[in-house]
């Protein structure tokens, strides 16, 4: 059994005797890499007709003791046996990445399924700078969002326990930020809604800023959870995902801008109150 990964081919499993049904657990290792004849022969051998250069195929097996397989670019796949002879056979290199006549994956992604006749699982192999269960998202652009930074690292169709360490660290950091932010927003709201705080000119702005901060942190954790669940293919509802992209981003940016304006207004009001107090004190 051969596997193609990042345009490199590997020998993953070799069975001497046929077994009707078996469970196979394999690991792709560099030692089982199958190089091309372009890496093994000079230009003179490569330029020979197919059947003329085939007589040289025993040379790599005898020259490289760790070589397990290699392939001709258009016809042969060869295995090096225990006697260091090349056992070559015809190999179909034509890849079909379509699903039912059309490409299921977007942005030129490659579609893979475990069985051509009756598949039970499938996945999309995305090009660089694309991610998502169907390669529908991209990191190309001028701005950086949460989707661009973290979404590229989340593995579709894998549980959270098997996600990369960077995803787990970001999740822990997000939960910590949310907890601190919510506690800060609640305490600020309780503080600035007192009668004494509201009597100060900037007290109303600070109260509104605390409420805005609470709403912003709530939207942030909601967006993070939706991003995590959608990239893990747990949430697949198109309407919900579209509303997440349209509504949550706009609301988060709006609340961030409102919070900045409220903080600026509270500073201006505080400065104006101090200026008026200075004038009154100077007149007296």
Per DSSP E runs of 2 or more residues, the count of β-strands stands at 10
Mean pLDDT: 77
Helix-strand string: EEEHHHEEEEEEEHHHHH
Q: Can you tell me the overall shape?
A: elongated
Task: Describe the structure in your own words.
- The chain has eight helices and ten strands.
- By secondary structure, the chain is of the alpha+beta class.
- It has three domains: 89 residues, no CATH class; 45 residues, Laminin; 124 residues.
- The strands form four sheets. A three-stranded antiparallel β-sheet has the order 1-2-3, with no helix packed on it. It has a three-stranded antiparallel β-sheet with strand order 4-5-6.
- Helix 7 runs antiparallel to helix 8.
- The chain is elongated.
Tell me the layout of helices and strands.
Layout: E1 2-5, E2 8-11, E3 33-34, H1 43-46, H2 50-53, H3 58-63, E4 69-71, E5 76-80, E6 86-90, E7 110-113, E8 122-125, E9 130-131, E10 137-138, H4 146-150, H5 165-192, H6 195-199, H7 203-231, H8 238-283
Antiparallel strand pairs: 1-2, 2-3, 4-5, 5-6, 7-8, 9-10
């Amino acid at each position: 059994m051969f596997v193609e990964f990042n345009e490199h081919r590997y020998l993953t499993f070799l069975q001497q005797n046929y077994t009707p049904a078996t469970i196979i657990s394999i690991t792709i290792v560099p030692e089982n890499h199958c190089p091309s004849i372009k890496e093994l022969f000079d230009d003179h051998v490569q330029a020979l007709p197919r059947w003329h250069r085939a007589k040289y195929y025993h040379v790599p097996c005898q020259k490289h003791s760790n070589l397990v397989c290699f392939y001709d670019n258009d016809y042969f796949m060869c295995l090096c046996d225990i006697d260091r002879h090349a056992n070559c056979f015809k190999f179909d290199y034509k890849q079909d990445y379509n699903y039912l006549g059309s490409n299921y994956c977007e942005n030129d992604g490659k579609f893979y399924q475990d069985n051509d006749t009756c598949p039970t699982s499938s996945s999309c192999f995305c090009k660089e700078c694309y991610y998502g269960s169907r390669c529908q998202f991209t990191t190309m652009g001028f701005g950086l969002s949460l989707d661009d930074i973290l979404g590229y690292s989340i593995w579709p169709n894998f549980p959270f326990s098997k996600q990369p360490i960077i995803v787990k660290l970001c999740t822990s950091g997000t939960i910590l930020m949310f907890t601190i932010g919510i506690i800060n927003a609640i305490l600020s709201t309780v503080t600035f809604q007192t009668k004494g705080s509201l009597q100060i000119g900037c007290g109303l702005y600070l109260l509104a800023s605390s409420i805005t901060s609470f709403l912003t942190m709530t939207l942030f954790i909601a967006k993070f959870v939706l991003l995590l669940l959608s990239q893990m293919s747990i949430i697949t509802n198109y309407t919900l995902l579209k509303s997440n992209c349209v509504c949550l981003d706009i609301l988060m940016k709006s609340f961030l801008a409102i919070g900045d304006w409220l903080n600026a207004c509270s500073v201006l009001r505080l400065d104006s109150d101090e200026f008026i107090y200075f004038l009154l004190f100077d007149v007296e």
